[in-house]
Write a structure and sequence with these properties.
Blueprint: E1 2-4, H1 10-21, H2 30-37, E2 38-45, E3 51-59, E4 65-72, H3 81-87, E5 92-96, E6 102-106
Antiparallel strand pairs: 1-2, 2-3, 3-4, 5-6
């Protein structure tokens, strides 16, 4: 399940980030970082709630946004999860809904 600005814990994302980039598990404050400096982010979870993927949509506070930290858990790679994470921001015009879910409409 994909979620725009989906909830996650620092421990979950630090573990996924370490796996994705082949580094040690750090103790970074991802929640504070993305809430303070990002336009948004997308999470992917399995039916049991485990974090499978993440992408950060950073921005300059104006008109430029770009994606960073595109991550998919190793055992779930090559199944299209990363593509789906990125596709949410590509080719559509999204507006975060009040509930935190994604509202999309095709660009014209």
């Amino acid at each position: 399940m994909l979620a725009w600005r989906g909830a996650f814990t620092n421990a979950e994302l630090n573990a996924l980030h370490a796996e994705g980039f082949g580094t040690r598990v750090r103790d970074d404050d991802w929640v504070g970082q993305v809430e303070g400096h990002s336009l948004g982010w997308v999470t992917a979870r399995d039916p049991g709630g485990a974090l499978l993927g993440f992408v950060n949509v950073a921005w300059d506070g104006g008109v430029h946004a770009f994606i960073l930290d595109t991550l998919t858990a190793a055992v779930h790679r090559r199944h299209g999860i990363g593509t789906e994470l990125v596709a949410i921001r590509r080719g559509t015009r999204e507006r975060p809904a009040a509930s935190g879910s994604m509202s999309t409409s095709t660009s014209t």
